[in-house]
Structure formats: C-alpha cells, structure tokens
Amino acid sequence: NAGVTQTPKFQVLKTGQSMTLQCAQDMNHEYMSWYRQDPGMGLRLIHYSVGAGITDQGEVPNGYNVSRSTTEDFPLRLLSAAPSQTSVYFCASSPGTGGRGEKLFFGSGTQLSVL
Amino acid sequence: ILNVEQSPQSLHVQEGDSTNFTCSFPSSNFYALHWYRWETAKSPEALFVMTLNGDEKKKGRISATLNTKEGYSYLYIKGSQPEDSATYLCAPISGSARQLTFGSGTQLTVLP
Questions:
Q1: What is the pLDDT of residues A51-62, one digit of tens each?
Q2: Which residues, listed in sequence order, are joined to residue A19 by a DSSP beta bridge?
Q3: pLDDT digit string (tens) for A56-107?
Q4: What gap in Å lies between CA B43 and CA B49, rounded to an integer?
Q5: In chain A, which residues have their Cβ closer than 8 Å to the Cβ of B51?
Q6: How far is CA A13 from CA A9, A21, A89, in A?
C-alpha cells in the first residue's frame, strides 16, 4: 500500500538554487495538490490539478511551478529558491476536489530549508 | 482568501476528560467540511467529511457535527486518551473558495 509517495524527506538549498519535489500516487486519483505548512498557519494550497494536463494556482503559487503529464505524478518545482520558501511541503491526492465527500490522502512531507 | 477560524488554538486536558473544538467558516455557497487529525512527525489523516447541514459523524470516541446555516462545526472527543494528542484541522469548501481551505488547527495535549 504505497498511497502517496513524496521525495525527498529533507532538503537544504542555497538561495537561487532550483529543485523539484516529487509526488506520486498509486490510487488512480484525479485530484492532486501541493500544500505548504508554516508555524502558526494552516496548510496553504500552492497548486492543484484535477487531472492529467490540467493544473491551476492555489492561494500561494508564486515561486512554484507544477505540471501533470500523468495521473500518477505531480512534481513541484522551485525555480529559484528563496528563504521565504523554507517550509514543510505536503502533497495530497483524492478521487475528487473534496466537495462531494472525497477525503485527501497526504504524503509524508518534505522539510525544505533555504539558506 | 477564505476566513476559517478554529478555537481554541491549543488545549491541555487530563486523561479521561471530554473536550470539544470549534471550526467557523463562511456559511454561503457551502459544499463540504473536512476534519483531519495530524500527529507530530506524521501526515494529516482524514477523520470526517461532512456535506449536509445537520450531519453528525462518529468514529470511536470522536464525533463531529455540522451547521452549514450558521457556518460552524464541532469536534468532540469523549474520554480523551494520551494517543488523542494531535493537531485537529478543519477545512471547508464554502464562500468564494472552490478548494479546501485549512484552518490553523487546534493542538490537543492529553496529559496522563
């Protein structure tokens, strides 16, 4: 039962570096999303996808890119890392957007530090 | 940005106590209300998803109610145990939002 797999678990970057956070799910879910979690704040939506080839911005999309070439994979790209992107990142998937009772399944998270 | 408020922000109770938390959200254009349990060093896990006004859900000692007309949900834990220690997140889809918007959570600590 793999569920939602996120890699890496930890990453340290220097300002200006780029990297990709990987997310894969094996439940054939159409909906996938990326969140960041900062102290004192709830999970904030970065980007989401309702199916292969379809992505859209969430609440805090600046500095991040996504693509969805397959149902299984939804990578998150940081093009030029900034200290403000230091956070814990969670990928989630669901059969739907959650409005009809579909619950989210979360990955294990990536702790990212940008120096 | 949807205004989702959870109270209290944190709570310490003794083992065996019953407790409850509140989630407030815009009552207009309501679609669903999710509750997630998030233990330290783990990922959030779904507890309940409610879509209808008056919904009541129960899972063991934990239950939740929903009032969409006034825009709130309560989460109850009966006879708290140390393993109930976690952050409890609510996330509605309502108002102007068409995606889940998470509150900042209620951090529960159950003291043995």
A1: 999 999 999 999
A2: A78
A3: 999 999 999 999 999 999 999 999 999 999 999 999 999 988 778 899 999 9
A4: 17
A5: 99-101
A6: 13, 12, 14
More confident of the two residues B48 and A98:
B48
Q: What residue in B sits closest to A111 (Cα-Cα)?
A: B41
In the predicted model, what is the mean pLDDT of residues B44-68? 95
B chain contacts of residue A97, beta-carbon cutoff 8 Å: 93, 98-100
* Structural tokens at position B14: 């003794």
What are B111's two structure tokens?
């003291």
Contacts of B45 in chain A (CB under 8 A): 106
What is the C-alpha to C-alpha distance for residues A34 and B48, in angstroms, rounded to an integer?
21
Distance from CA of B87 to the nearest CA of A (A): 11
**CB contacts < 8 Å between A and B, how many?**
66
Q: Are strands A76-78 and B56-59 parallel, antiparallel or unpaired?
A: unpaired
